[in-house]
Design brief:
CATH superfamily: monomeric porin ompg
Number of strands: 14
Largest sheet: 14 strands, antiparallel, barrel
Helix content: 10-25%
CATH topology: Porin
CATH architecture: Beta Barrel
Structural class: mainly beta
Oligomer: single chain
Shape: globular
Strand order of the largest sheet: 1-2-3-4-5-6-7-8-9-10-11-12-13-14
Length: 348
């Protein structure tokens, strides 16, 4: 690819990504298809639930960033399962195949099972049972423009059914990934969940999707077995309106009152941040820790100290298989377990 085409592609994708800065974000229950925000990769789950800038090929995190497909992922299969809360569980299967000229393609199937529910009439008489579930079928493409830049796009048809109510929708992700020449650092910019409801549950008007603009950075420490990562989420809206019951609010506007401008800026800024560290002492084992500031602020119990927002994980490279496990402590009422199994089929 010549230099002129190189710049055209980068400028075009950058313009598409940056223009969404002016879009009003849909935050905190004002959107449909919340499954689009669920994390399925145990590796990503251990690192705070957001991993959009890495330097190694790993098909299990392609759902986080389709530009990862430009890193040389080929003939990889990933199976992911999450034991969420109560009877809710979900998972994803993803396969990627690379070509010499057209880039790398992947297909993934995601399911979310809410379990069985008892159906009753207005008098409390049990009339039967019903189920609720949601699915996406993801088609992704990634292309490495040169040694440092990759792009990616993902298209996801969505099907959601709750008892007799169902809905179809479609979502699109677009991403740009930078890898430093020495592969010690990576940076990424992603527009996620551009789309619409094609058919609604009952209302004639379609509900918005959970649109999100993200930026991420990771850095491998030279001569040390540590990789640090920072992810900024929901950049399309600075004030995420996170108000706790014990917060003082302005009676006229309903907005939270802060002691100082600095405290206001710091509090609102941290609502966007996910920080993580990955300890990789060799080729066999990886230890991972993450901290999601927004999860912590939303799910903590008043002044009581809990582990909400903290995530932990372990990765084992067994040659033909890579096994990843994560434990996410969302709330004192329960934790979530994530398990991923990844393999390159050509190794068999």
């Amino acid at each position: 690819m010549n230099q002129l085409n190189h710049h055209k592609i980068v400028l075009l994708l950058s313009a598409v990504l940056l223009c969404f800065n002016t879009v009003h974000g849909q935050i905190g229950g004002s959107y449909t298809y919340g499954l689009l925000n669920l994390n399925t990769s145990a590796r990503s789950g251990a690192l705070g639930g957001a991993l959009i800038a890495v330097t190694d090929p790993d098909v299990s995190v392609v759902n986080e960033n389709p530009a990862f497909l430009g890193l040389g992922i080929d003939n990889q299969l990933s199976l992911n399962y999450v034991n969420y809360f109560a009877d809710i569980n979900y998972g994803r299967v993803e396969y990627a195949h690379g070509t010499k000229k057209l880039g790398t393609f992947s297909a993934g199937l995601f399911y979310l099972n809410y379990g069985d529910f008892i159906e009753a009439n207005e008098y409390g008489d049990i009339t039967g049972e019903f189920q609720a579930a949601e699915y996406t079928f993801d088609l992704s493409w990634g292309y490495r423009i040169d040694s440092i830049l990759s792009i990616g796009v993902s298209v996801s048809p969505i099907y959601s059914v709750f008892e007799r109510y169902n809905s179809w929708g479609i979502a699109v992700d677009a991403a740009l990934l930078y890898i430093s020449p020495g592969q010690l650092s990576a940076a990424s910019l992603i527009v996620r969940n551009i789309g619409t409801q094609l058919t609604t549950y009952y209302s004639p008007d379609p509900e918005p999707l959970p649109f999100e603009l993200l930026a991420g950075f990771s850095q491998k420490i030279r001569y040390a077995p540590f990789r640090l990562s920072l992810t900024l989420r929901n950049l399309q809206k600075f004030n995420l309106d996170l108000i706790q019951p014990d917060d003082e609010t302005d009676p006229a506007t309903g907005e939270k009152i802060y002691d100082s401008n600095f405290k206001e800026f710091a509090s609102k800024g941290l609502d966007h941040l996910v920080a993580a560290v990955e300890f990789v002492p060799g080729e066999v084992i990886s230890l991972r820790f993450g901290y999601n500031f927004r999860n912590r602020a939303e799910l903590k119990l008043g002044t009581r100290n809990t582990a909400s927002g903290l995530t932990f994980g372990l990765g084992l490279n067994l040659g033909n298989f890579v096994i990843d496990y994560a434990l996410a402590n969302y709330h004192v009422a329960g934790i979530s377990h994530l398990l991923s199994l990844t393999s390159r089929l050509s190794d068999f």
